[in-house]
C-alpha cells in the first residue's frame, strides 16, 4: 500500500490541470480579442514595472505600442505597470486591431526581454441591426393615399445602396416588394413598401451576410434579422419619445405611427418643467427644439383627441419622462458653424455644450488676413485615411514618434500662429441655461496687435484626445453689407454691430479670388465705400472684402455669404392697367365677430401724384372661402384717399378674410388680409399673494392661492407654483453715480493663470416647484423655504402660479416678494473710464439701509 501523500498525488495533478484549463486567457474567447467601444481610451497592464517616476501622469507622443491598423494618439503612464492610450479620432467600426509593445522605447535593461501586454488583440463592435419600426406615411406615388414604411436602425453608418440588394421583407412567409431611395450614408435606413400589407401581422426583415459599415474593414458573416409590428391606420400610436443631443443641442424626438400636424401637436402638448420650444413635423412624428436644460428630466404629455395626417386618432393620453443622458462624452459649440462673428464690444462669450467631460484644453490660433481665403476653401480636415498607414494630419516621425498635428479639423500650422493654450475645469466655467460660457479675452486674442486675422478656437478633452471641436471666430464691431451690381459696381456698407450707426473712416480692401488686392477705399460719413470695376481689374473676380478701423478688423467672404434672392420679392414695383398704386391699412389685423373693420386707402399715380378728385374706386371684403361678402363704392378725396368700414355680424364665419382695392373698372390695386377669430375667456379667476412680502434668509414664504369658477361654485383644481430668485438692483434716488451691484457670489481661479474671475450670482439660484390641489373652497397654499443666503444684497423672489381648469387649460398668475440678505448695503462711486498712470484715484464709498 502506497503512503498517504503519494496516494493523493494523481488527485493533485488533476486539480492543477483543471485550474490551468479554467484560467482566463489574456484575450477574449473570440479570435479578434475583446470588444472595445470606438469612443474610449485603452488601458494596458504590463507584467513588470517600466515607467519612471518622472514619466507618470503626462501625455507622451512616443509610440510605446504599435497598432495594426494604425491609430494616431497619445500615451500616458498612469502607473509603473499601467499605460493609457487615447486616440486622436475614434477607432474604426467593425475592425480588428492588434497591439504590439515597442521594446526600443523601453528602458535598456528591458529591451531584450520586454514585459508582456495584457491585451494584444481587440475589436470594435460588429455591425448590428438594432431594431426595425413600421409606420404609415403619405404616398409619394399617389397623392392623397397612404403607404407603409419601415425604418432600419444600425449601430453604424451604412450605405443604403448596399442594404437594398441584401434586404428581404416578408409577411406571413410571403415576400413584400419594397424600395430604398436614400443615397447618403446613415445609421437609419428608410424602406418604402410598394404593396399593401395587413395590419396586426408583423413584418419580417432579414439582411443577408455581406453588409459592411462605412469605414469598417469587415462585413457581416451572419444574417441580420428584425421584426416590425404593422399598426392600424385608424389609430395614432406614439412609438417612442427620446431626448438626444444633436451637435450638443438638446432635442426631443417623438415618433408616431403616422404623420402629425405641428399645429395639432402644439394644441395638446404639455412639457413640464415649462420651457420655450418650437415644434417641427417629421416624416412620422415631430421633434421639439428649444431652451431645454440637459441636466433636467422633462415630463412629456399628449392629450387624447389629437389626429394624425392620415386620420388616425390618439385614443389614450400619452405621458413619458424624457432626459438627455448621453452614453458617451460630447463637446459642441452652441451654434456650430451657423455663427462666426462675435462683437468685440460685447461679452465675447462662446456657448459650449459639454457632457461627461471634466477638463478641457482650449487653444486659440490666429489665421492671418492674407490666408483667410485659403483656410475657408480648404475647410475641415477629418475622417479615416485611404489606407491603414495613410491618415491625414499625422504619421510616424523620426525615432518612431507620432507627429502631433493637433489641429486636424482646421489646418492652421502654415496659415497662422497659436496665441494661447489653457486648461479649464468644466465645473468652473460660468453656466447659462444648458451652456457653459467660454470667454475670449482681447488680450489673449492680441486684438490691438498689428497683425490681423481670423481666429480658430479649439476645445479638446484632456483625457480623450479624439474628443475635440473647433470653431471659426471673427471678433469685431464692424458689420459689413456688400451689394454687387450687374455693371461691375460694388457698394460696401459699414455699420457698428453694437449701435447700428454708420462707420466712417473704415479702410476697405477688395481682394480677388486669387488673393490679389485689386482696390482699396475708405468709407464716407454714411459708412459707404464704392468700387467700380475697370478694364484693368475686369479679369479678376471679387471674392473677399476686408475692413479695418484702428484696432478693429473684420472680413466678408462673398462666396459663402451671398444671399440667394429667389425666395424674396425683389422684382420691384409692378405696373397695372390703371397706372395707379394703392396703400391699404387698417386699425388692426385681428377682429372678433361683431367688431367693426375700419380701413384707410391712399392712391397715387406711378409718379407719386394724387389722382383726380372724386375718382371712383371699390373696396371688397372676401370670405375665407373666396366668395365676396361685401363691396363698397367710394370716391377719392382731393388728397387721393378714402376711409371705409365693415360691420361684422356676431354669427359671421371665422377665418382669414381678404380686403381688395379696385378701380371702377375692376383693376386690382392692392389687397390685405385680416383674421376674424373667437376668443375663449378664462374659466377660472385666480389670485395669488406671497406672504410675507419682505423675507429674510431661512424664513418660509407662502403663496396663498384662490381659484374660483367664473360660472359656478369654487374650484378644486390642480396647481403648480414655481419659486425663483434673482438679483434686484438697488438704485437710491440721492446716489445716482454709485453702484451697489455685487459682481459675484464667489471667486474662482482660472486654470493656467494667476488671476481670479467672478461668477454670476444668478448661478447660485435654483428654481423650486411645488404642486398641490385647492380645497373645496378653491384655496391652496405652497410654501417655499428661503435658502440661507448672506451678503448678496436685495433679491427679488417670484411665485409663478399655474392653475389648471377642468379641460387642462392653464391660468397663470405671478406674485413677487423681496429677500433682504444684508441689513446694510454698500456702494462705490463710479470711476472714470480713462485715468492717468502714476496718479492716485480717489474712490467714494457709501453705506445705506435697504
TrEMBL record:
GO molecular function: endopeptidase inhibitor activity
Chain ranges of the Alpha-2-macroglobulin MG3 domain: 475-574
Domain annotation Macroglobulin: ranges: 581-666
Signal peptide positions (record): 1-27
InterPro entries cross-referenced by the UniProt entry: Alpha_2_Macroglob_MG3 (IPR021868), Bact_A2M_MG5 (IPR041203), MG2 (IPR002890), YfhM-like (IPR051802)
Keywords: Signal
Residue span(s) of domain Bacterial Alpha-2-macroglobulin MG5: 682-817
Pfam families hit by this protein: bMG3 (PF11974), bMG5 (PF17972), MG2 (PF01835)
Protein name per its UniProtKB record: Alpha-2-macroglobulin domain protein
Organism: Hymenobacter roseosalivarius DSM 11622
Lineage, highest ranks first: Bacteria, Pseudomonadati, Bacteroidota, Cytophagia, Cytophagales
Amino acid at each position: 500500500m502506497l503512503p498517504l501523500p503519494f496516494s493523493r498525488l494523481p488527485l493533485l495533478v488533476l486539480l492543477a490541470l483543471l485550474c490551468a484549463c479554467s484560467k482566463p486567457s489574456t484575450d477574449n474567447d473570440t479570435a479578434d480579442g475583446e470588444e472595445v467601444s470606438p469612443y474610449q481610451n485603452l488601458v494596458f497592464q504590463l507584467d513588470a514595472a517600466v515607467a519612471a517616476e518622472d514619466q507618470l501622469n503626462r501625455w507622451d507622443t512616443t509610440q510605446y505600442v504599435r497598432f495594426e491598423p494604425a491609430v494616431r494618439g497619445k500615451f500616458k503612464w498612469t502607473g509603473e505597470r499601467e499605460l493609457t492610450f487615447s486616440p486622436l479620432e475614434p477607432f474604426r467600426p467593425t475592425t480588428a486591431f492588434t497591439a504590439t509593445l515597442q521594446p526600443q522605447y523601453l528602458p535598456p535593461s528591458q529591451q531584450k526581454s520586454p514585459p508582456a501586454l495584457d491585451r494584444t488583440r481587440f475589436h470594435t463592435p460588429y455591425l448590428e441591426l438594432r431594431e426595425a419600426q413600421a409606420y404609415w406615411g403619405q404616398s409619394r406615388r399617389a397623392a392623397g393615399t397612404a403607404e407603409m414604411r419601415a425604418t432600419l436602425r444600425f449601430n453604424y453608418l451604412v450605405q443604403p445602396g448596399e442594404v437594398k440588394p441584401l434586404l428581404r421583407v416578408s409577411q406571413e412567409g410571403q415576400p413584400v416588394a419594397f424600395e430604398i431611395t436614400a443615397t447618403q450614408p446613415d445609421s437609419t435606413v428608410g424602406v418604402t413598401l410598394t404593396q399593401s400589407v395587413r395590419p396586426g401581422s408583423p413584418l419580417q426583415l432579414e439582411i443577408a451576410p455581406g453588409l459592411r459599415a462605412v469605414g469598417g474593414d469587415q462585413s457581416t458573416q451572419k444574417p441580420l434579422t428584425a421584426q416590425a409590428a404593422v399598426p392600424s391606420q385608424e389609430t395614432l400610436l406614439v412609438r417612442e419619445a427620446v431626448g438626444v443631443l444633436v451637435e450638443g443641442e438638446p432635442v426631443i424626438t417623438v415618433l408616431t405611427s403616422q404623420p402629425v400636424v405641428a399645429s395639432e401637436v402644439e394644441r395638446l402638448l404639455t412639457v413640464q418643467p415649462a420651457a420655450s420650444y418650437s415644434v417641427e413635423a417629421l416624416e412620422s412624428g415631430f421633434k421639439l427644439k428649444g431652451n431645454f436644460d440637459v441636466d433636467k428630466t422633462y415630463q412629456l404629455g399628449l392629450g387624447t383627441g389629437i389626429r394624425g395626417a392620415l386620420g388616425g386618432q390618439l385614443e389614450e393620453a400619452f405621458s413619458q419622462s424624457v432626459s438627455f443622458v448621453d452614453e458617451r462624452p460630447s463637446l459642441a459649440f452652441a451654434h456650430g458653424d451657423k455663427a462666426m462673428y462675435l462683437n468685440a464690444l460685447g461679452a465675447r462669450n462662446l456657448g459650449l455644450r459639454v457632457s461627461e467631460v471634466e477638463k478641457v484644453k482650449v487653444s486659440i490660433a490666429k489665421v492671418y488676413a492674407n490666408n483667410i481665403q485659403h483656410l475657408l476653401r480648404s475647410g475641415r480636415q477629418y475622417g479615416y485615411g485611404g489606407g491603414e498607414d495613410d491618415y491625414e494630419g499625422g504619421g510616424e516621425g523620426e525615432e518612431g514618434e507620432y507627429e502631433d498635428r493637433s489641429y486636424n479639423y482646421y489646418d492652421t500650422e502654415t496659415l497662422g500662429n497659436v496665441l494661447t493654450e489653457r486648461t479649464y475645469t468644466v465645473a468652473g466655467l460660468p453656466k447659462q441655461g444648458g451652456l457653459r460660457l467660454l470667454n475670449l479675452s482681447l488680450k489673449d486674442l492680441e486684438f490691438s496687435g498689428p497683425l490681423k486675422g481670423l481666429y480658430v478656437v479649439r476645445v479638446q478633452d484632456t483625457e480623450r484626445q479624439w474628443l475635440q471641436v473647433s470653431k471659426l471666430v471673427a471678433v469685431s464691431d464692424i458689420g459689413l453689407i456688400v451689394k454687387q451690381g450687374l455693371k461691375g459696381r460694388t457698394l460696401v456698407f459699414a455699420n457698428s454691430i453694437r449701435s447700428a450707426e454708420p462707420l466712417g473712416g473704415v479702410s476697405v480692401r477688395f481682394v480677388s479670388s486669387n488673393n490679389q488686392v485689386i482696390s482699396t477705399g475708405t468709407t464716407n460719413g454714411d459708412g459707404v465705400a464704392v468700387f467700380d470695376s475697370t478694364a484693368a481689374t475686369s479679369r479678376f473676380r471679387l471674392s473677399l472684402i476686408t475692413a479695418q478701423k484702428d484696432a478693429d478688423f473684420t472680413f466678408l467672404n462673398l462666396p459663402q455669404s451671398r444671399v440667394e434672392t429667389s425666395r424674396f420679392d425683389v422684382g420691384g414695383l409692378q405696373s397695372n392697367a390703371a397706372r395707379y398704386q394703392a396703400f391699404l391699412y387698417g386699425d388692426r389685423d385681428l377682429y372678433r365677430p361683431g367688431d367693426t373693420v375700419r380701413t384707410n386707402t391712399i392712391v397715387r399715380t406711378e409718379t407719386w401724384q394724387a389722382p383726380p378728385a372724386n375718382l371712383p374706386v371699390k373696396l371688397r371684403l372676401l370670405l375665407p372661402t373666396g366668395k365676396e361678402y361685401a363691396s363698397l363704392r367710394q370716391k377719392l378725396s382731393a388728397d387721393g384717399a378714402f376711409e371705409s368700414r365693415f360691420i361684422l355680424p356676431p354669427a359671421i364665419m371665422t377665418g382669414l378674410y381678404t380686403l381688395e382695392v379696385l378701380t371702377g373698372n375692376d383693376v386690382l390695386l392692392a389687397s390685405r388680409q385680416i383674421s376674424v377669430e373667437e376668443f375663449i375667456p378664462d374659466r377660472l379667476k385666480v389670485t395669488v399673494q406671497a406672504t410675507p412680502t419682505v423675507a429674510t434668509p431661512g424664513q418660509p414664504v407662502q403663496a396663498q392661492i384662490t381659484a374660483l369658477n367664473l360660472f359656478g361654485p369654487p374650484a378644486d383644481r390642480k396647481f403648480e407654483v414655481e419659486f425663483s430668485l434673482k438679483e434686484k438692483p438697488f438704485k437710491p434716488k440721492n446716489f445716482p453715480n454709485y453702484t451697489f451691484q455685487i459682481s459675484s457670489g464667489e471667486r474662482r481661479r482660472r486654470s493656467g493663470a494667476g488671476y481670479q474671475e467672478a461668477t454670476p450670482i444668478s448661478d447660485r439660484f435654483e428654481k423650486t416647484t411645488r404642486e398641490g390641489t385647492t380645497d373645496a373652497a378653491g384655496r391652496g397654499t405652497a410654501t417655499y423655504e428661503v435658502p440661507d443666503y448672506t451678503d448678496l444684497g436685495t433679491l427679488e423672489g417670484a411665485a409663478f402660479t399655474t392653475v389648471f381648469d377642468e379641460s387642462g387649460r392653464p391660468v397663470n398668475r405671478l406674485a413677487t416678494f423681496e429677500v433682504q440678505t444684508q441689513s446694510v448695503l454698500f456702494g462705490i462711486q463710479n470711476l472714470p473710464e480713462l485715468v492717468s498712470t502714476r496718479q492716485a484715484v480717489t474712490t467714494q464709498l457709501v453705506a445705506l439701509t435697504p
